[in-house]
Specification:
Helix content: 10-25%
CATH class: Mainly Beta
Radius of gyration: 17 Å
Structural class: alpha+beta
Number of domains: 1
Number of helices: 6
CATH architecture: Sandwich
Largest sheet: 10 strands, mixed
Strand content: 25-35%
Order of helices and strands: EHEHEEHHHEEEEEEEHEEEEE
Shape: globular
Oligomer: single chain
Length: about 260
């Protein structure tokens, strides 16, 4: 189940280790981002000219590109080339307030004994802080996330666990629940479950989710994305979140974050 914290000052490295070690699905920090910051950012981000669609076949829109979207070495080069520009774009969208992604970066650096830093792939810094808009009716189907699928094999050997963080800006009144299954398939098992699908799993082939949670605007959820998880479609409005991944390389190593 999720550990619920009422303020970010309660978070410590033991909470993060509990997720890493499978003792909890994740951490839910209520009111991580003040509501006035959320309302300000919505006014800026929802009209931002940098919004782009993930692809022509889906209504999924985002600001900033995710490492998971890289399809070629040309894509990879461009991702890293604009990484810092995109970090500053998200930061500037929150001015005069602090960006929640920057607050997350500081928080991880403070609570983790050896700190936290931007992930580098082939010596190049990654982007962190992608803003995702899940429009009404869109089903973010069951799936898992693994950095190993998106990085060169020689640059991933030290990663032990992967966590995922979402900071919510808008949640629909109906739908938008985060669902999690107590299933962490190996890559071979996942590919077998996926079959011929290009992305994700058929919900009908899975048992009912082990838990579900509905965050509110301003909340933060940190979870283990290697467990199968999904987001129910909304029926009335867009679902908006800032997203990041966090890499765990051992208790004596810094955390690393990216999007």
């Amino acid at each position: 189940m999720f550990q619920s914290l009422s303020s970010l000052s309660e978070l410590n490295h033991e909470h993060i280790l509990n997720v890493v070690n499978g003792q909890s699905f994740g951490i839910h920090i209520k009111n991580f981002c003040p509501i006035e910051t959320v309302e300000h950012a919505k006014d800026v981000l929802y009209q931002h000219q940098s919004q782009t669609m993930l692809d022509a076949s889906t209504p999924y829109v985002r600001i900033g590109k995710g490492l998971i979207e890289i399809k070629s070495e040309t894509d990879r080069a461009h991702y890293h080339e604009v990484a810092l520009d995109n970090i500053r774009l998200i930061r500037n969208s929150f001015k005069p307030y602090a960006s929640p992604i920057d607050q997350l970066r500081l928080l991880l650096d403070e609570v983790w004994p050896t700190g936290a830093k931007l992930l580098q792939v082939n010596g190049k810094k990654c982007f962190v802080g992608i803003c995702r808009f899940q429009r009404a009716g869109m089903d973010l189907i069951p799936h898992t996330d693994k950095l190993e699928r998106n990085t060169p094999s020689h640059d991933q050997s030290e990663l032990l666990k992967q966590l995922s963080v979402n900071i919510y800006l808008e949640i629909p009144e109906h739908g938008g629940e985060l669902e999690m299954w107590d299933i962490e398939p190996s890559e071979e098992e996942y590919q077998k479950l996926q079959g011929d699908r290009k992305y994700g799993l058929d919900r009908e082939t899975l048992p009912p989710p082990a838990t579900s949670i509905k965050p509110q605007p301003g909340d933060l959820i940190l979870l283990n994305p290697r467990l199968i998880h999904a987001v129910r479609p909304s029926s009335d409005s867009v679902r908006v979140a800032l997203s990041a991944f966090v890499g765990y390389f051992g208790e004596n190593q810094p955390l690393a974050y990216w999007s």
